[in-house]
Amino acid sequence: MWYIEKKVPEYLNRVYHEHGEFKNQFYKGIHQSTTVEEFDSDWEAMIDKYGLQDNQWLNKIFSIREKWIPAYVCHNFCAGMSITQRSESMNKYFKDFLNSSTPLSEFVTQYEKALDARYNKEREKTFKTRNSKPLLRTLYPMEEEASKIYTRKMFRIFQDELVGSQLFITEKVKFSIEVSTYKVREIYKEKPIYYVNFHVTSKEANCSCHMFEFSEKVKEVAIEGFQEGSNNASDTSLFNSIMVHFLELSERGSQSEKYYDIAIQSLQNGIAKLDLLDIEESNKEFVNSTSEYIPKVSEANIALHDPRLVATKGRPRTLRMKSSLEMVRKGFSTCSYCMKNGHTKPKCPTLNQTR
């Protein structure tokens, strides 16, 4: 495809330079068309607009469109590789070990060194994947799970797609027990429009862009549709939906101070209502938890009795009435040294004088 795009200025020189919008329309029709019908319609509109019905080169490449247009070839798995990518990457890699002047006697040795270096690099990547944790950029459980499965390089690709899914909005267009279809597009763009089918039973999703079928990479629109499809089972999609509305509120609220005041007031009112809801839910949980342990007894059946007497520990107190002399003597203390009343041995004046 890059070879055909390279030849556009050569075969369409007049149109290419006289009409500045032709270049964008040409590349947009090729790369942003998600279906065969959409590409054919855009191509026909471009031909009619610029009067290119008799251009032999355009007619020729259109006749073989199923071999190079992404909308036609996206159903075929290519691992994301281009025609020359394999040879270019291998040439770049072996340049560190071989060159055009390497003799045959050294070729085998250098080739083995190149393979060993490749294996060592793979082992380093595997070790890093198993013994380290990548930095997460969102609160999605999906991201944390992917970090445990993918290699670091593949996880970074997935992470970029996951973060990019925040810029897309979804609209349910078809619903059934087995399959739900969602229309997905960027928030501020009308095109391109993607359609994501979410299979309820198998929990699988496929997108009209066929990115996964073409390169086994999950595109952000498929992630957005998958999150929307599992809306009833996961809090992740709720968070995602709130973020979409929050982005729209932020965009409109930043237009002027008046818009800003309205946006902030709306947020504060919403937070206040959520706080009240938290209090109500907490009270309900407390009542439900205590009601399980407190038996419900009718007041008519309640009979009150005196508490049961329990014997105290130790020697029981005597009930004999004491004389007034005993009551008075109870407050006196006797010194064990001088045998006098009114003080104890530590405070005895006689003992202190002898010391």
Please characterize this protein's 3D structure.
Helix content is 55%, strand content 7%. The model is unreliable at 230-234 and 296-300 (pLDDT under 50). The longest helix has 35 residues, at 257-291. The chain starts with a helix and ends with a helix. α14 (236-253) runs antiparallel to α15. By secondary structure, the protein is α+β, with helices and mostly antiparallel strands. The protein is elongated and about 140 Å long. A 4-stranded antiparallel beta sheet has the order 1-2-3-4, covered by helices on one side. The chain contains 17 helices and 4 strands. Among the domains are: 2-73; 85-131, no CATH class; 165-251, no CATH class. This is Protein FAR1-RELATED SEQUENCE. InterPro entries: FHY3/FAR1. Keywords: Metal-binding, Nucleus, Zinc, Zinc-finger.
Summarize the structure.
The protein has 17 helices and four strands. It is of the alpha+beta class. Among the domains are: 2-73; 85-131, no CATH class; 165-251, no CATH class.
**Major sheet: order of its strands?**
1-2-3-4
State Rg.
Answer: 42 Å
Structural class comes to alpha+beta
What oligomeric state do the depicted chains represent? single chain
Measure the end-to-end span: 117 Å
Give the helix tally.
17
How large is the share of residues in beta strands? 5-15%
Mean pLDDT: 76
Helix content: 40-55%
The overall strand count is 4
Unreliable stretches (pLDDT < 50, length at least 5) are 230-234, 296-300
User: What is the 3D shape?
Assistant: elongated
H/E element order: HHHHHHHHHHHEEEEHHHHHH
Biggest sheet statistics: 4 strands, antiparallel
